[in-house]
Amino acid sequence: MNLHLEKTNGCSVLFIKEERIDAHNAGELKETILRLIEQGEINIIIQLEHVRFIDSSGLGALLSGHKNAEAKSGRLAIANLQQQVLSMFELTRLNRIFDIYADLNEAFET
Amino acid sequence: MCSSVIQVEVIIPTQTKYLDLIGSIGEHIAKELDGYSGDREALAYHLNLVLTEATVNAIKHAKFHDPKDTVRITIYIRENELNIKVYDHGQGFDLESVPLPDFDHPKEGGMGIFFIRTLMDSVTYTRQGDCNVLEIIKYLS
Lengths: 110, 141
Known about the structure:
The structure holds 2 protein chains of 2 kinds. In chain A, 40% of the residues lie in helices and 26% in strands. Chain A is an alpha/beta fold. Chain A has a single domain, classed as Transcription Regulator spoIIAA (2-Layer Sandwich). In chain A, the strands form 2 sheets. Chain A has a 5-stranded mixed beta sheet. In chain A, α1 packs parallel to α2. By secondary structure, chain B is of the alpha+beta class. In chain B, 30% of the residues lie in helices and 29% in strands. Chain B contains 3 helices and 5 strands. In chain B, strands 1-2-3-5-4 form a 5-stranded antiparallel beta sheet. In chain B, β4 and β5 form a beta hairpin. The longest helix of chain B is centred in the middle third of the chain and has 21 residues. The chains are: A alpha/beta, B alpha+beta. The interface between A and B is medium-sized, with 22 and 26 residues.
């Protein structure tokens, strides 16, 4: 999976450089996020600008990260969602669980 | 009303690397449908998602440790009915016992069947000979 990690404003920003998160690569995403949290990086923003498709496994990987960050008093937020990807968060009501930002600037301001 | 007939049959190994291929077929069909007046982009995403979830489901229920096992997917569109069938050779499961997700306490799994039920018009899972068939219908009018 093509991922890029940057540390900005005290947060770990994980850029997903894939068009698709599905059952084929969601496990790798989940492990990457869990490893970050285990290393003490508990404030994470997942940047989804390039992602135009996410399935239930992808949502599950992000939810796993959210729960694990929260358990360590951190937070996992998501940013730059394409409309159809956002609609999957709305359909599953996960938009009530995640902090969702239009872009990274908005995420850092909060 | 969609007047043309489209029929597609794909057989893949039980490997998740083929999900993109299967989902893309659904997406392309939605974009090429004649006479569809609804939100084509949304339909494209929904068919991609439903085919992906149904194929993952079949791979999960495939014969364990059998590298020669396959998943067969058929897509058939006639008039305003889009019919998807996904065949697996596993033990099967009880579709009716799959619960709705708990939206207040969401879990990592269990959203795939929810997506299929929510976005499509009819879903059944039956035994046919040596296969299980997940049949999904979407009315396009």
